[in-house]
UniProtKB/TrEMBL annotation:
GO biological process, any: cell wall organization
Reaction(s) this enzyme catalyzes, per UniProt: L-glutamate = D-glutamate
Species the sequence originates in: Bergeyella porcorum
Pathway in which this enzyme or protein is active: Cell wall biogenesis; peptidoglycan biosynthesis
Enzyme class: isomerase
Catalytic residue list: C94, C206
Gene behind this protein: murI
Name this polypeptide is given: Glutamate racemase
Transmembrane segments: none
Length: 286
């Protein structure tokens, strides 16, 4: 080996080997609350034969207001729980968790199963399309990480990315204030912020926000393209499962399990509205 090669050894990327996994294993999806259901719903639509295990960390909501250390703690316990549940893949259906604890999730999973997050697939897709001024609205925990900007500009450094923290939207959504004057006032106040003045594209950088998609689109009319992140994430999951022959048999009738760390009326109401009345919630304190 040359001296150069000894000093700078080429780090070979370990090729993922998931041959120990079985297509019939469930997919784990988690968020702090109901937001991740927007992703789970899209997974259900795109992959109707997959079993899902959803964890809503309602006891620790909102993640967007928590420290990085706290988020890492919550997310690590959920990851361990989903691994114990024998999941074949984990979808981090939470931007705040992705922005603050993706590295820790990957370390825990240790390459044994695929991990899909909600920021990188969206950032990559955006960066290959024609967008020059992109706005991101997200929680404080996501905006302060700067991960959207870093991730988009890693692929395309000509895109201007402006991120705005919009912390009042999650509580409004969790309170069920859809089509409500309070929510309209909050949306108007945030979207008229100078930071978002020249954007052509808006990323909803929090999985709760697609629940206000109609109101947000109404504000912009056709002036700004609002990105549908849940469908990008669900597509990424399908691609990864397909690539590793991990898609469940089409004859399989999907089964859904829902766990929450605190049984709240709001989660029950909103989750049933999104996922249907037949779901039952199980309390699981981690
Ligand atoms: N849905 C989560 C996200 O995508 C955050 C909500 C919260 O603040 O807990 O960031």
């Amino acid at each position: 080996m040359s001296t150069f090669a000894k000093i700078f050894p080429l780090k070979k990327k370990k090729k993922a080997d998931y041959s120990h996994l079985n297509a019939s294993q469930p997919i784990g999806v988690f968020d702090s609350g109901v937001g991740g259901l927007t992703v789970a719903k899209e997974i259900k639509r795109l992959l109707p034969h997959e079993d899902l295990i959803y964890f809503g960390d309602t006891k620790h909501l909102p993640y967007g207001e928590k420290s990085k250390e706290a988020i890492i703690g919550y997310v690590s316990r959920i990851t361990e729980f989903l691994l114990e549940k024998n999941c074949k893949a984990i979808v981090i259906a939470c931007n705040s968790a992705t922005a603050n604890a993706l590295k820790e999730v990957l370390e825990l999973v240790d390459g044994k199963i695929p991990v899909i997050d909600v920021i990188n697939p969206v950032a990559e897709k955006i960066s290959y399309e024609i967008h020059t001024n992109v706005g991101v609205i997200a929680t404080k925990a996501t905006v302060s990480s700067g991960l959207y900007r870093k991730s988009i500009r890693k692929h395309n450094k000509f895109i201007k990315v402006d991120e705005l923290a919009t912390p009042l939207l999650v509580p409004a959504i969790e309170e069920g204030f859809k089509n409500h004057p309070i929510t309209h006032a909050i949306i108007y106040n945030y979207l008229s912020n100078n930071k978002l003045k020249n954007i052509e594209t808006l990323i909803l950088g929090c999985t709760h926000y697609p629940l206000l998609m109609d109101e947000i689109k109404q504000y912009y009319g056709n002036r700004v393209r609002v990105i549908d992140s849940p469908s990008i994430v669900a597509n990424e999951l399908r691609m990864v499962l397909e690539q590793h022959r991990l898609l469940n048999a089409t004859s399989h009738k999907a089964h859904y399990e829902f766990y929450v760390s605190d049984l709240t009326k709001n989660f029950e109401k909103i989750s049933k509205k999104i996922f249907g009345n037949t779901i039952s919630l199980e309390l699981k304190e981690l």
